[in-house]
Amino acid sequence: SKTRHFKWEVEYMYWSPDCVEGVVLGINGQFPGPTIRARAGDIVNVELKNKLTTEGVVIHWHGIRQQGTPWADGTASISQCVINPGETFVYRFKVERAGTYFYHGHYGMQRSAGLYGSLIVDVAKGEKEPFHYDGEFDILLSDWWHESVHEQELGLSSKPFRWIGEPQTLLMNGRGQYNCSLAAHYSNSSSSQCMFRGNEQCAPQILRVIPNKIYRLRVTSSTSLASLNLQISNHKMVLVEADGNYLQPFAVDDMDIYSGESYSVLFTTDQNPSNNYWVSVSVRGRKPNTTQALTMLNYHNTTSASKPPPSPPPVAPLWNNYTHSKLFTKKVLALMGNPNPPPTTHHRRIILLNTQNYIDGYTKWAINNISLVLPATPYLGSIKYNLNNAFDHKTPPANFPSNYDVMKQAQNPNSTYGSGVYMLSFNTTVDIILQNANALAVNTSEIHPWHLHGHDFWVLGYGEGKFSNENDEKSFNLKNPPYRNTAVVFPFGWTALRFVANNPGVWAFHCHIEPHLHMGMGVVFAEGVRRLGKIPNEVLTCGLTGKMFLNNKND
Ligand SMILES: O=C1O[C@H]([C@@H](O)CO)C(O)=C1O
């Protein structure tokens, strides 16, 4: 194994992700940030310099478990102090497992501002994937707004509440088109045909292929809000990997991907090579007000990339066709031989009710009536050094009142802000039931993709309505549940997860929709923190740990 060194500088830049100039958070002058490519077993060493003039920054390595390096998880207020303007911080961690991952900002809403990039881990030298392919493409999906993230943050925390609305544009590898369309030829839309020379920041990356080969497409979603559906016209896709774990292969015509998820799909270039084909990405789960993102699959030896495909882009499944989404999601199952969940029945079960609430007239999300507010001192430090005033010491509830009606508008008059932690006994098995419910508006319940830091979990099942301990656990899949770091909870439904608390550290578990996390939709788990050796001081130079270091010096 090797150490892979990267030297990065984060700064704001003018950029035109969707052909409209705006401001993005870039790394080394690039948007999206540079791709990290390593092999399983390597050490990744990123020396990150914050060149922002008035904001801190951190970077989270999404899907990397950080065994033994919980201070490198890159979560502000949880695993570290933010890196101040002008300062440099070194992230150093092992990438244990091959797979498709990404990295992104995890402070305020910096991910939405464009702070993200791909992280791809190849199998170790001499190892083989359980499938064959001849070529590879990597697509990082995101959504883009013309309003600045600072203004969005302000709106979300204002009274009256100002929602960010639907994105202006969907981006593929940071490229989309707002004021023109690649498919204007076919529609009677008012948008004009895009005329690209190819060097524009918003020009689509064309997937150039040759006939009769198998390609691996790695797809990751870093969206702020949108759930997505991807298809390649005329080409079937076979799913083989999710969040760094191999799947029981299955073929589809279109696939869903939620924020925080990654997949690898294989497709075979077995179609007429004298045509081009659409690659399209559309919004689902929320009433779309954003046109589909488009690029092309081009058999480049036989067809010019500028030849329009013979028919208009494929029509996506209807945004609220949840039956379609559930069918897809339930096909995602682990490949035989993947680790199986411990079958224990005597373990901790935490049921997390997802509701939208008013607190003092502010619109928030709350979990079991508590809307997460992060403390000034990172939990990793305050737990390690027993700084009892650093956060709420009341354990957050492991359930919600049994008479709560999840089908009715939220009635949570007692919702509060909180910063409590679920303390997990080291090495225990934990079951989480994500319980969705009606939001503030009548007959409304939204999709939430939940992401766990520091672990993968088994997705034991999905169900409708309120979870019932007696009946629903009988339906758990203990044979081949997918092992992942992100799972969706469908509107008015529940999702059951299981993980083993075997990674010393403090770990966020939260809705990966950026404005929802900003509105409090997350919880914090901690396990085995006292087993950790020395936590590097530079991780904890703020808040009460920062003061503690000062006092120790002066003594
Ligand atoms: O958190 C959210 O707030 C809005 C809406 O519920 C209130 O404007 C919305 O669609 C969300 O997902």
Automatic annotation (TrEMBL):
Among InterPro entries, the record links this protein to: Cu-oxidase-like_N (IPR011707), Cu-oxidase_2nd (IPR001117), Cu-oxidase_C (IPR011706), Cu-oxidase_fam (IPR045087), Cu_oxidase_CS (IPR033138), Cu_oxidase_Cu_BS (IPR002355), Cupredoxin (IPR008972), CuRO_1_AAO (IPR034259)
What is the scientific name of the source organism? Camellia sinensis (Tea plant)
Q: Which PANTHER family match?
A: FI03373P-RELATED, MULTI-COPPER OXIDASE
GO biological process: one example: response to hydrogen peroxide
Name the family the entry cites: Belongs to the multicopper oxidase family.
User: Where located?
Assistant: Secreted
Query: EC no.?
Result: 1.10.3.3
**A cellular component annotation (GO) from this entry:** plasmodesma
What are the protein's UniProt keywords?
Answer: Copper, Disulfide bond, Glycoprotein, Metal-binding, Oxidoreductase, Repeat, Secreted, Signal
Instruction: Name all Plastocyanin-like domain ranges.
Output: 10-122, 139-301, 408-528
* Broad class of where this protein is predominantly found: secreted
List, alphabetically, the PROSITE patterns matched.
MULTICOPPER_OXIDASE1, MULTICOPPER_OXIDASE2
Under the heading Pfam families, the entry gives: Cu-oxidase (PF00394), Cu-oxidase_2 (PF07731), Cu-oxidase_3 (PF07732)
Kindly state which reaction or reactions the protein catalyses. 4 L-ascorbate + O2 = 4 monodehydro-L-ascorbate radical + 2 H2O
Under which name does UniProt file this protein?
Answer: L-ascorbate oxidase
**Stated role:** May be involved in a redox system involving ascorbic acid.
GO terms (molecular function) for this protein are: copper ion binding; L-ascorbate oxidase activity
